[in-house]
Task: inverse folding
């Protein structure tokens, strides 16, 4: 069933955010709010470790479903339950991508694991690949191209100060 | 060819400085006019490669003048040349993914973010590595990589921006560059041996790549990783993304079985995801909530990247 739900969800994705609920757990006692705002009306109070479903996300807030109640909580107030909590660990690292039938692995390898790794040993053994670097460089975007992309996505620059006394670059930072 | 030639002088500058350091070390250990084989052989072979032979680099005085280079501010052109070599090394371990549309998309998001960083004018390159494991990397000078295995766990442009902005911050704060300098002496002991018998063109580049890749294997300090998180969320917010994209990604990774093979290397080289989330919760001010926007540009994202992957 879940498989079907995922497949259907994938099919409708272009419309809006996928509404497939993700199981999560509250990490502290909290009030579900009617709107994503601290001063909004409380829908219901939940104790720590409550099982909930994430309906959608909006910035710092997540919309949660708890039984018949739906309301908003802070993103940091939950942790996603994940397959690791209920099911045995999947070792192949492809997870749901398999379910969606995405092409994974088996590329240029006769090994049947189907997973293309990248680990410490591979990095240590690597020899530079200038051809791939040239390809990497060929995809670079100019300031103008990136700005046009941002405009098309309705992204607007904002003035935001750095946090925690950080400086804009390494000059003056501790070594 | 990829403008390797123009970078040669810069690379040689860096390379020479670490070679010089090794020479000094060798000279101190064995006083007297006879040069220890390692240092001088290497220096000759390297210099010979680049037609600068005949310089008596064996002189301890000359080596001494380079010793302090391990602590100098590396000029930007040298940083870029080094980062290029290390990036080429990384691509030797995992090539780029095959989709030009996806690579272009990631470069658009990345370059837009970088324009809101303290180093907007670097030659920024962004790449998707063809690997199923979860990871992202940066090399000095503006090369940023995300693995396909991490990308398939991303739910939209804000989450992608969160990851790229974290890596951009490593470059801006010169974390890898500083780390390489700190470890240069130790690394060169290994690399001198490798270079010694070589004398082939590109050997210096390989040595630099090796030093850099060692750094990626070692991983950065917890302090550096948390600093990149802290700066990354600000860069994302400046670029118009909701700054909680990184938080969402980290939550998704925290929900994976932590012994999943796809996470192994990532978790060895990063603080625990729970640790990072706790730090972000403390650092991200309430004012960031006003930057919340409905997942921007979701439609265009899903046109290029098959969407997740919900649990």
Result:
């Amino acid at each position: 069933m879940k498989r079907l739900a995922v497949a259907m969800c994938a099919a409708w994705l272009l419309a809006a955010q996928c509404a497939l609920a993700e199981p999560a757990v509250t990490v502290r006692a909290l009030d579900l709010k009617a709107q994503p705002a601290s001063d909004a009306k409380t829908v219901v109070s939940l104790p720590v470790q409550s099982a909930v479903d994430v309906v959608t996300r909006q910035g710092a807030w997540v919309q949660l479903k708890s039984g018949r109640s739906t309301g908003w909580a802070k993103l940091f107030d939950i942790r996603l339950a994940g397959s690791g909590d209920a099911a045995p660990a999947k070792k192949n690292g492809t997870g749901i991508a398999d379910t969606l039938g995405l092409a994974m692995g088996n590329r240029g390898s006769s090994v049947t694991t189907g997973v293309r790794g990248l680990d410490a040993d591979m990095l240590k053994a690597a020899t530079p690949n200038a051809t791939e670097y040239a390809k990497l460089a060929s995809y670079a975007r100019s300031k103008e191209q990136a700005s046009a992309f941002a405009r098309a996505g309705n992204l607007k620059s904002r003035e935001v100060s750095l946090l925690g006394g950080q400086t804009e670059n390494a000059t003056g930072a501790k070594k | 060819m990829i403008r390797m030639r123009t970078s040669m002088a810069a690379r040689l500058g860096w390379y020479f400085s670490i070679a010089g350091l090794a020479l000094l070390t060798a000279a101190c250990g064995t006083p007297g006019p006879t040069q220890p084989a390692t240092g001088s052989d290497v220096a000759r072979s390297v210099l010979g490669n680049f037609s600068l032979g005949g310089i008596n680099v064996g002189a301890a005085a000359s080596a001494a003048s380079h010793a302090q280079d391990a602590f100098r501010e590396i000029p930007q052109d040298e940083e870029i040349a080094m980062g290029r070599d290390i990036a080429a090394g990384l691509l030797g371990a995992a090539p780029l993914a095959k989709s030009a549309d996806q690579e272009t998309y990631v470069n658009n998001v990345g370059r837009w973010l970088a324009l809101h960083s303290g180093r907007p004018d670097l030659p920024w390159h962004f790449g998707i590595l063809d690997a199923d494991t979860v990871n992202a990397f940066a090399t000095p000078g503006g090369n940023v990589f995300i693995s396909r295995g991490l990308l398939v766990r991303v739910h939209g442009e804000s989450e992608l921006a969160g990851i790229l902005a974290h890596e951009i911050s490593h470059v801006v704060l010169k974390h890898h560059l500083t780390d390489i300098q700190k470890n240069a002496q130790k690394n060169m002991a290994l690399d001198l041996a490798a270079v010694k018998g070589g004398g082939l063109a590109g050997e210096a580049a390989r040595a630099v790549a090796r030093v850099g890749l060692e750094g990626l294997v070692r991983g950065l300090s917890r302090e550096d990783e948390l600093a990149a998180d802290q700066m990354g969320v600000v860069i994302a917010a400046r670029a118009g993304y909701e700054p909680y994209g990184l938080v969402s990604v980290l939550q998704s990774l925290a929900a994976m079985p932590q012994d999943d093979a796809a996470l192994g290397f990532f978790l060895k080289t990063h603080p625990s995801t729970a640790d990072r989330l706790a730090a972000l919760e403390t650092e991200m001010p309430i004012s960031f909530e006003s930057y919340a926007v409905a997942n921007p540009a979701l439609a265009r994202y899903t046109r290029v990247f098959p969407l997740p992957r919900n649990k």
User: Anything to note?
Assistant: Chain B touches chain A through 116 residues (CB under 8 Å). Residues 98 and 130 of chain B are 8 Å apart (CA to CA). Strands of chain B lie at 125-129, 136-139, 143-147.
